[in-house]
Amino acid sequence: MPPRSPASSSSPSCPSSPSAFSPSSSPSSPRDVLVAVLRGAGCVFAEEEAELILGAARTPDEAAAMAARRAGGLPLEHVVGWAEFHGLRVTVEPGVFVPRRRTEFLVDQALAAVPHASVVVDLCCGSGAVGAALAASLGQVELHAADIDAAAVSCARRNIADHGGHAYVGDLFAALPGQLRGRIDILAANVPYVPSGEVPLLPAEARDHEPLTALDGGGDGLDVLRRVVAEAPHWLAPGGCLLVETSERQAPAAVEAFARSGLTVRLADDEELYAHVVVGTRVR
Question: How does pLDDT run across 83-103, given as a tens digit for each residue?
Answer without folding.
Answer: 999 999 999 999 999 999 999
